[in-house]
Write a structure and sequence with these properties.
The chain is an alpha+beta fold. It has eight helices and 18 strands. Strand 6 and strand 7 form a beta hairpin.
Length: 331
């Protein structure tokens, strides 16, 4: 698994290998913890252009020595012996992980594309990342951001898989470039959402402020559009060119800020938004899903939202796990 993790973090894993790593990561809490530990080690040790395994090994050995130096009393020899053994095993595992990832990184790195950092999120996890240029990236669940080598040099290049909101620090001399699989997003400084679905080979960009250039990767033609605030661009490998239209989804950032707006929205559509934001399964019995709702929720809990819906329409609610089922006599 160390080899696959290294390829995953370095951006050299195939689609099948990424799927295998993510499936393994989601199998158990232990696997998720190991994944995050490996991710932390990778980030710490790949900040430069080379992975210094000797330096990493020295740091881990120093941690071991510090752990052993805590033994101060012969009366506690049994307890401290057990503690030292546990510490040795813990840091020995750390050494193996550092060396394993380091060697694979050294073997698989290609000059010019090696990452300086990789960030990944799990199920139901949203993570804010601040890059060295001051850009803030908010990763949605099950997404990955690779900050490529040389970032903040002549340009600022990253690779995205999944969904993220970018608030890019403005720099007229160094464009911010996002490799989204089948397309490229290029800006100087603005805020926007990117959804990169590599499996479907579709990239969506929704602009909140500033302007964004979206170019599809179709070989030599490389068609592109410039998007303004309130516009959405779609690059689909199955179609020619990049489509541009007005964004009518008021809740496209609800997963990030938990601000949700409904304006004469059917409860069936309400459920779709809430299911996406809160990761719940909300259903309506009979035709009550056609009832319309106008409301705004500001960072409220799912329990509060369910209660408001129930009280507004006089529905009964059955709750089990992450499921909410509404029943009633209609609107």
């Amino acid at each position: 698994m160390n080899e696959l993790l290294a390829k995953y973090f370095s951006g050299n894993a195939t689609t099948d290998e990424r799927t295998e790593v993510e499936a393994w990561r989601n199998q158990s809490n232990e696997n998720a913890s190991e994944f995050l530990e490996a991710s932390d080690i990778w980030h710490q040790q790949t900040k430069g252009q080379e992975f210094d395994v000797a330096s990493a090994l020295s740091k881990v050995k120093q941690q071991m020595q510090n752990e052993e130096a805590k033994v101060v009393s012969m009366k506690e020899n049994i307890a401290t012996s057990e503690s030292s053994s546990f510490g040795f095993m813990k840091y020995a595992a750390g050494i193996a992980l550092v060396i394993g990832l380091g060697l694979i990184y050294w073997l698989t790195s290609v000059p010019g594309i090696a990452p300086s950092a990789t960030y990944a999120t799990l199920d139901d996890e949203v993570q804010d990342v601040e890059l060295s240029d001051g850009t803030i990236v908010t990763l949605d669940e099950n997404s990955q951001l690779i900050v490529l080598e040389g970032f903040n040099g002549e340009d600022r290049s990253v690779k995205l898989t999944g969904t993220a909101f970018f608030d890019v620090a403005r720099d007229e001399n160094r464009p911010f470039i996002i490799d989204a699989g089948n397309s490229e997003v290029k800006v100087l400084g603005t805020s926007f959402l990117v959804k990169s679905d590599e499996a479907a080979e579709v990239t969506e960009v929704i602009v909140k402020s500033g302007s964004v250039a979206l170019a599809a990767d179709y070989g030599r033609t490389n068609p592109s559009v410039v998007l303004s605030p309130g516009e959405i661009g779609v690059a689909d490998s199955r179609k020619a060119g990049v489509l541009k239209r007005n964004n009518k989804d008021a809740n496209y950032l609800a997963w990030k800020d938990k601000v949700i707006t409904f304006d004469r929205t059917t409860l069936t559509e309400v459920a779709q938004v809430l299911n996406d934001v809160y990761k719940v399964e909300m259903t309506f019995e009979g035709n009550i899903g056609n009832c319309q709702m106008t409301a705004q929720f500001q960072q409220q809990s799912i329990e509060a939202v369910v209660e408001i819906i129930s009280q507004t329409f006089g529905f009964e609610v059955k709750h089990k796990g992450k499921g909410y089922k509404f029943t009633g006599n209609g609107c």
